[in-house]
Structures are given as structure tokens and as C-alpha cells.
Amino acid sequence: MEGLMQNHEEIAEYFRIHGVSVIFLFRRNLLRRMISVLANEYDRKAKLLNGTHKSHTHSVKEAEILAKYKPKINATLLKQNLRQVNDTTTKALGYFKSTRHIILYYEDVVKNRTKLLDVQDFLKVPRMDLKSHQVKIHKGSLSSQVENWNDVNKALIGTHYESFLHQDH
Ligand SMILES: *[C@@H]1O[C@H](CO)[C@@H](O)[C@H](O)[C@H]1NC(C)=O
Ligand SMILES: *[C@@H]1O[C@H](CO)[C@@H](O)[C@H](O)[C@H]1NC(C)=O
Ligand SMILES: *[C@@H]1O[C@H](CO)[C@@H](O)[C@H](O)[C@H]1NC(C)=O
Ligand SMILES: *[C@@H]1O[C@H](CO)[C@@H](O)[C@H](O)[C@H]1NC(C)=O
């Protein structure tokens, strides 16, 4: 992502010349995204220590073990971090607006599998029934997934990020 942002002009030009299309996959709930990122970082480090890294969690047992880990979120920096993610996203969309692209939101795909047909149409591949074999690590409410939910709650109540606290897809 960093390289993409720093060298966006060259990359957009490369995409244009080579006819590359881009799929933007975002989350609407940036708080959930942050929790996911922290959990994945933990997962990666834990796996690295053990010598093997699997980025996709295929075993339910493994997923359960990982789900026990609860990240602690720095509440002081939270709003600032959320704003940064929003800014970066907005910038990225600006940089690549003339690249052929499709924007997908994770929440929409989960709710509405028809979105995946849109992607296949976008990619101009024949429509197939796509089933994900990935096991979702986090189940249940956001509040149960963070070590210091009270701090997070306090930091976001009354801000325009407040809805992130309540949205469980
Ligand atoms: C790492 O390996 C140890 C010993 O084999 C095991 O007990 C532990 O659960 C593993 N941890 C992870 C995160 O896979
Ligand atoms: C949050 O991050 C700031 C800046 O890095 C740091 O000064 C502060 O101690 C952190 N707070 C917690 C609770 O870790
Ligand atoms: C960034 O935040 C603004 C204001 O809350 C919102 O309208 C916009 O959709 C957000 N952008 C992204 C890319 O999430
Ligand atoms: C599901 O997605 C399709 C394709 O994007 C859209 O046409 C349809 O209105 C969506 N359905 C709902 C219930 O949101």
C-alpha cells in the first residue's frame, strides 16, 4: 500500500499502458478493520515464530485459538488513526480514478453475494458460484473482540465515528 501511494503516478501510468484493472476492497466499518489488522499482525507474528505462516485460516480449531487474542487499541490515537485511514482511502481513489476499477465493500459482499457476480462481470470472466473456504476468525460483537472496549467506546462516542461502535454486520 505504501509503495502504491508513493509511486502512484508511475503505477497508474503502468496500469493504463498495460490495461490493468483494479479492485478496491474496503470496509465500511474502519474500527472493525483496525481490529482485523491488529489480529492479523498478531497471527502473522505468532506463526512466524513457529516457522510457518498461513495467511488464511482454514482450520476452525486454529481460528478459535486466534480469536482468544484480543488487541488493545490505543484510544488516544484512535480518532486520528481512523481519520488517516479515511484520508488514505480517499487519496487512493483519487490517484487511481482514471484506472479501470470497481469499488467493493466487505460488508456489502458478506450481505449480498450478488456483488461477487458484479466482480466476475467486471473481470469479464464467466459467472460461477464462488464459495469461500476461509473461516472467519471473529464471530460476535466487536465489544467482545477488544481488550479495552470501554476506552474505545469513550473515545468514539459523540464523534462521527460513533456508528462504528454499533455496526455489527
Ligand atoms: C506454536 O507452536 C507451539 C508448539 O508446537 C504450539 O503449542 C503453539 O500453539 C503454536 N502457536 C501458534 C500460534 O501456532
Ligand atoms: C498511545 O500512543 C501514544 C503515542 O505513541 C503514546 O504516547 C501513549 O502512551 C499510548 N497510550 C497507550 C495507552 O498505550
Ligand atoms: C471519510 O469520511 C467521510 C466523512 O465522515 C465520509 O463521508 C466518507 O465516506 C469517508 N470516506 C471513506 C473512503 O471511507
Ligand atoms: C445486491 O447486489 C446487486 C448487485 O450489485 C444489486 O443489484 C442488488 O440491489 C443488491 N441487493 C440488495 C438487497 O442490496
UniProtKB/TrEMBL annotation:
InterPro entries assigned: Nod_factor_sulfotransferase, P-loop_NTPase
Any one GO molecular-function label of the UniProt entry: hydrolase activity
Keywords: Hydrolase
Keyword Translocase part of the UniProt annotation: no
Keyword Ubl conjugation set for record: no
Protein name: Putative P-loop containing nucleoside triphosphate hydrolase
Organism: Lupinus albus
Taxonomic lineage from the root: Eukaryota, Viridiplantae, Streptophyta, Embryophyta, Tracheophyta
